[in-house]
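2024-03-11 09:14:02 DEBUG pipeline.ingest accepted 1 chain
2024-03-11 09:14:02 DEBUG pipeline.ingest length=410
2024-03-11 09:14:03 DEBUG pipeline.predict start
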Amino acid sequence: MLNTADHCDPPLTVTFEEAGTVLVVHVPEGSDKPYRCAKGFYLRVGPSSQKLNRDQIVEFLKAEGKVRFDEMENPGFDFQARFDQQKLGKFLARAGITEVLDTSTMLRNLGAANDRPDSAAINNTGILFFARNLEHTYRHTVVTCALYKGTEKSDVLDRKDFNEDALSSIEGAMVFLRQHLPVRYEFTGALKRREIPELPLEALREAVVNAVCHRDYFERGANVMVEIFDDRVEISNPGGLPKGLSPEEFGKRSVTRNRNIANLLHRLDYIEKMGTGIARMRNWMAGAGLKPPKFTFTTFFTAAFMRPQTPARTGGVSGGVSGAVFGRVTSVRQARLLRLLRLLHESGGLSAPGLAHRADVARRTLERDLALLSKLELIRFTGPPKTGTYVLTEKGRAFLKKSGGMSHQP
């Protein structure tokens, strides 16, 4: 028995205990799995031991964290053609790192490249952050954002896929959320109004960053998902709790599935690596007077944020004063149309590019909204075709005042 234990790789510690005429052999669970004996690798399944084949060994190593996606290299990645030096420069500037060393050394110091004799080879962390277009190398790293009508995944009103690089995907998801979640305004007498989103963007951003950071990148059949329903926002990623983190310790300890990715996000203050992200999300929701987020973890990790129920959100279409004018449009579009009218009221008039920038709305979406508002005679265009502006009509001013969106006169 001792000879067998000593010849395991790595060696096992075995203890014996006498209980009368019975010899008890204690073989504690090892902390450095997997263990190999002379005949190969085995997995204990109930009362029997099952010898693992090659593929099973590979999957076991992944599950135990012995092989990490972010530390692996991709032989098919053409560094000269696909590495983006400007992205590295922007990252260093944002992280406050002086660019004085050569590229290979900088990448190695960031954990974005592996050591090689007299050089460095970019790994998947470097590819995720600094590839010229990540889509050309990995298609499963996409962040998919979707807006649904209702509370089920049936009618898709809008969808965007982001896969330029890890940081751009995070920012793209946040732009999508800002575009489709209503915002209310508070006027306190200061020159600048206070914008209060329906859900705290800090909490949503934390969830998006966590999803990109902690997803299982070995799973190529699923994406990070950012989904907006009438009653909630769900942010999910493939991969449940990382190895070494129990459900009881969730939200209390920090265990990372992708250490190098986490380190780069930490350098930009995206994460703290202190296990405080879950508590912060709960605090932000509580500070907004909303229900705490709900977290579920199976083969996926999902954070669900319940949206506040408003009179306008009835069956996914607008109601009240706005509904009588806009017709059967989604509550999200109703909020966006009202926001455009408020911006025109506060500014006295804006061009289409100015409105797109101030409202953070995609060009095609803005064109459709302006066409509807013009058809309803709530706004009109004035000036030259290329440099003119949109302004409120008298009908538009009266409507905005009646709907409660006109807090003061410009």
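2024-03-11 09:14:41 DEBUG pipeline.report The mean pLDDT is 84.
2024-03-11 09:14:41 DEBUG pipeline.predict end
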